[in-house]
Amino acid sequence: MKITTERRFKIKYQKTFAEYITGLIWSNTGDQLAIISAAGELALWQAGKTNWLRQAKRKYSLDCLSFSTDSQWLATGGQEGNVEIWQLPHIAAEPKFILDGGKAWIDCLAWNRLVNLLAFGVGRQVKIWDAKTQTIIANLDFKESSVFSLAWHPQGDLLAVSGHGGVKIWHRHKWHKQPDWLEVPGASLDCAWSADGNYLASGNLDRTISLLHWDNPPPWLMQGFPAKVTQVAWSPVAPLLAATCQNAIVLWQFNASFKNWESYILEKHQKNIQAIAFAPHSYLLASASDDGYLYFWHKQGKISQSFNIQGKFTSLAWHPEGKYLAAGLNTGEVIIWQQIIK
Question: Under CATH, which architecture does the 18-141 domain have?
Answer without folding.
Answer: 7 Propeller (2.130)
